[in-house]
Automatic annotation (TrEMBL):
GO annotations of cellular component type: extracellular exosome; Golgi apparatus; lysosomal membrane; plasma membrane
Lineage: Eukaryota, Metazoa, Chordata, Craniata, Vertebrata
Cell location: Cell membrane; Lysosome membrane; Membrane
Topology class, membrane: Single-pass type II membrane protein
Organism: Cervus elaphus hippelaphus (European red deer)
Protein name in the entry: Integral membrane protein 2
GO MF annotation: an example: amyloid-beta binding
Keyword line: Cell membrane, Cleavage on pair of basic residues, Disulfide bond, Glycoprotein, Lysosome, Membrane, Phosphoprotein, Signal-anchor, Transmembrane, Transmembrane helix
UniProt-listed GO biological process terms: negative regulation of amyloid precursor protein biosynthetic process
Length: 209
């Protein structure tokens, strides 16, 4: 008598992949792409923070109210102390400065708006009383560029630096009438829009301590 036992079927094994090395390379590629996406996200986040937080804080620190006390040696009165006030707005990215001079407390002065445009190399004076604009070549020997001017005023604001003050007197003559204000750049043309505008030339410059 023969006893036959049924054969136990073999367990199916998953097919053997011989390309494990290629699979690991693909994983590294996916990981690298993920790192690139992550880094790009960090860059965009940094740009966002810079634009909406740092620049906003910087904008608040770009406005200064300045008052300078000095003695007028040319006045008929002895030891006459005067104060000249200015509101200064510095635009670092656009590379220009705007200064508003209200009505001085002393005689002989008029309120004015002034723009120093370092891109165009021009200075514009808006005489508010006459409602006229005067444009002249920017004098870079006495006008600090926006970044340097901003650092100076920030140091004065913090009390870490008290600069020596002096007065610059300039004599100017009108040379021509400006009809096309667009040639003066967007900042000055906006300031002088609708106003009679003239070009000036310096005749003499004097400095008084």
């Amino acid at each position: 008598m023969r006893l036959t036992l049924p054969c136990r079927p073999q367990e199916e094994r998953p097919p053997y992949h011989r390309y494990k090395k290629g699979g690991s390379v693909g994983g590294v590629c996916y990981l690298s792409m993920g790192m690139v996406v992550l880094l790009m996200g960090l860059v965009f986040a940094s740009v966002y923070i810079y634009r909406y937080f740092f620049l906003a804080q910087l904008a608040r620190d770009n406005f200064f109210h300045c008052g300078v006390l000095y003695e007028d040696s040319l006045s008929s009165q002895v030891h006459t102390r005067m104060e000249l006030e200015e509101d200064v707005k510095i635009y670092l990215e656009e590379n220009y400065e705007r200064i508003n001079v209200p009505v001085p407390q002393f005689g002989g002065g008029d309120p004015a708006d002034i723009i120093h445009d370092f891109q165009r190399g021009l200075t514009a004076y808006h005489d508010i009383s006459l409602d006229k604009c005067y444009v002249i070549e920017l004098n870079t020997t006495i006008v600090l560029p926006p970044r340097n001017f901003w650092e100076l005023l920030m140091n004065v604001k913090r009390g870490t630096y008290l600069p020596q003050t002096y007065i610059i007197q300039e004599e100017m003559v009108v040379t021509e009438h400006v009809s096309d204000k667009e040639t003066l750049g967007s900042f000055i043309s906006h300031l002088c829009s609708g106003k009679d505008t003239y070009r000036l030339r310096r005749r003499a410059t004097r400095r008084r301590e």
